[in-house]
Write a structure and sequence with these properties.
The complex is a heterodimer of chains A (258) and B (268). Chain A has eleven helices and no strands. With 258 residues, chain A is mainly α. Chain B is globular, with a radius of gyration of 19 Å. In chain B, 37% of the residues lie in helices and 26% in strands. In chain B, the strands form two sheets. A six-stranded mixed sheet of chain B has the order 6-7-8-3-9-10, sandwiched between helices. Chain B contains nine helices and ten strands. The chains are: A mainly alpha (258), B alpha/beta (268).
Chain lengths: 258, 268
């Protein structure tokens, strides 16, 4: 299994490398002429500068911290509420329309509302990011629970398992792959919305650094931070998949990561 | 366990059993006024064409669905899953927990209910009975269909049930695996001495495994024919199936089934 994976990874580096080289060349040659469009070399230099000054570490740490806290809150709430709603048919019928309505509201449109209520505080960042992250987790938990096979529920009854045992040993593990997909989507959204509220005005984190670099006309730094957000997203996703694999046997993790 | 088979003792007493099910908002009568007994340590085969309501009957006996009429299990009215009764489902893929190993699947019904060492003992015994001792730590999806069905049987055996209800357990397996598992079932039964109700649409299988056979047919389904099967304790895929007794039983059941089918066609 390992060798083909390696090969794919090597191939994966080819396209971005070519792109970066083309980018550099087209500016050097004069093909692209924008006043504030930096070369890859300038971006690398800016990255080095912010890394050296400690700003990179401070901003990234803040953003990652907020995104993770918000995600944790959203996950706990989403899974708990999702289990309850998924298990109770009358409750499901009663709230599903509201859930669908609320989650189709563009979350970014709610950021100004959050600003009015909380001001540019840490609370704003966490609430906005958690609000965004809760939907995929909630919806996937509900549908995971409701997708539990009747056969499996019959097995539980036949083996005379208590309701709690059925939830713990049958319903929860059988819906886990679907729940995990929700958690993973939630993690991505949490990071995005953290950065959004920083861009809008919270005076910390990557989003804030990005918008400050723009206003100070430092395009190199701006691009450096964009690169960093991308990298953070990539690493968080990777860390999630890695953890999922540790906690579940081969087949389940392949289900989760498929 | 060593008691002599007491043909008189009754495990299930079913009287005037009817089951209605709602399908797409419409209430349908699936079973109408069935009356029969299941006797201690016998294997009762119930045959019928597919779609007759065999599974519904078994689910009623398992206490999984509401019914009208009277079902008495060990003298008491059945309401909900009875103790010491285990149903073996046809659909083994969904009846097994794919995130648990063979061993953990077999443990499902007894873990946490009896002391640990005793639990392990029972798991080992059940796994050995179905011949899966080399696959304890495999996952169901790593096994063939026949082996997966054995896991389900082992899970049932680990509970040391008085009654085993089989819902076409070998229906989705190939002919060779099927015969192997039929013989295994006969062997397991002689060791565990449980009462069995075996449902199938395969007449040969019903005759080969049963001590008694009933025919379920019609819509709504009712019992139309009953016969004792006297093929002895030890049966053999080749010689038993060539014996005159087997062939004449098979003939009778076929004929009755055709008759019942014709009758139901006529009334429809």
């Amino acid at each position: 299994m390992a060798p083909p994976k390696r090969q794919i990874r090597l191939i994966g580096w080819i396209a971005p490398t070519i792109l970066v080289v083309l980018w550099q060349l087209s500016i050097d040659v004069g093909l692209i002429r924008f006043r504030y469009f930096p070369t890859p070399v300038a971006v690398a230099r800016a990255l080095y500068t912010i890394a050296l000054s400690g700003a990179l570490y401070k901003n990234t740490a803040h953003t990652v911290f907020v995104a993770l806290i918000a995600w944790a809150i959203a996950s706990a709430l989403g899974v708990a509420v999702g289990l309850v709603v998924g298990l109770s048919v009358p409750l499901w019928k009663g709230v599903m329309a509201s859930i669908d309505l609320l989650r189709s509201l563009p979350i970014i449109a709610l950021v100004p509302v959050g600003v009015i209520i909380f001001g540019f505080t840490l609370k704003l960042e966490i609430v906005i990011a958690a609000y965004a992250a809760i939907w995929p987790t909630l919806v996937n938990t509900i549908s995971g629970v409701r997708q539990t096979r009747i056969e499996l529920l019959d097995v539980g009854k036949m083996l005379r398992m208590s309701a709690l045992e059925r939830l713990r040993k049958l319903i929860f593990p059988s819906s886990l792959p679907v729940i995990m997909v929700g958690l993973r989507l939630g993690l991505g959204l949490s990071l995005v919305l953290t950065v959004v509220s920083e861009i809008v005005g919270t005076p910390h984190g990557i989003g804030n650094a990005l918008i400050s670099a723009e206003q100070a006309l430092h395009p190199g730094q701006m691009f450096a931070y964009i690169l960093v957000v991308g990298l953070v997203g990539y690493l968080l996703n990777g860390a999630f998949l890695y953890t999922a694999r540790i906690f579940s046997p081969a087949e389940r993790s392949s289900e989760i990561t498929r | 366990m060593s008691e002599v088979r007491n043909k008189g003792e009754v495990i299930y007493q079913v009287h005037d059993l009817s089951v209605n099910l709602r399908r797409r908002g419409q209430e349908r009568v699936i079973l109408k006024s069935l009356s029969f007994d299941v006797r201690k340590e016998e294997c009762l085969s119930i045959v019928g064409p597919s779609g007759t309501g065999k599974t519904t009957l078994l689910r009623a006996l398992a206490g999984l669905i509401p019914y009208a009429g009277s079902v008495r299990y060990l003298g008491e009215t059945l309401d909900g899953p009875a103790s010491d009764v285990v149903l073996v489902f046809q659909d083994y893929v969904n009846a097994l927990l794919r995130w648990r190993t063979v061993q953990k699947n077999v443990a499902l019904g007894i873990e946490g209910r009896i002391p640990k060492d005793q639990c392990q003992e029972r798991i080992d015994e059940a796994i050995e009975t179905v011949g899966l001792q080399n696959y304890r730590d495999s996952y169901p999806w790593e096994l063939s269909g026949g082996m997966q069905q054995r896991v389900q049987i082992a899970r049932a055996l680990a509970m040391k049930p008085k009654v085993l209800l089989f819902d076409e357990p070998f229906g989705s397996l190939d002919a060779m695996t099927r015969e192997g598992l039929q013989d295994e079932l006969l062997r397991v039964r002689s060791v565990f001495q449980a009462t069995c109700v075996f449902i199938t649409h395969d007449i040969d299988e019903a005759v080969y495994l049963g001590d008694r056979l009933m025919l379920l047919s019609g819509s709504p389904a009712s019992l139309s024919f009953e016969v004792d099967i006297r093929l002895g304790e030890t049966r053999n895929q080749i010689s038993t199936k060539e014996s005159g007794e087997f062939l004449s039983l098979r003939h009778q059941v076929h004929e009755q089934m055709r008759k019942a089918h014709g009758a139901s066609q006529a009334t429809n």
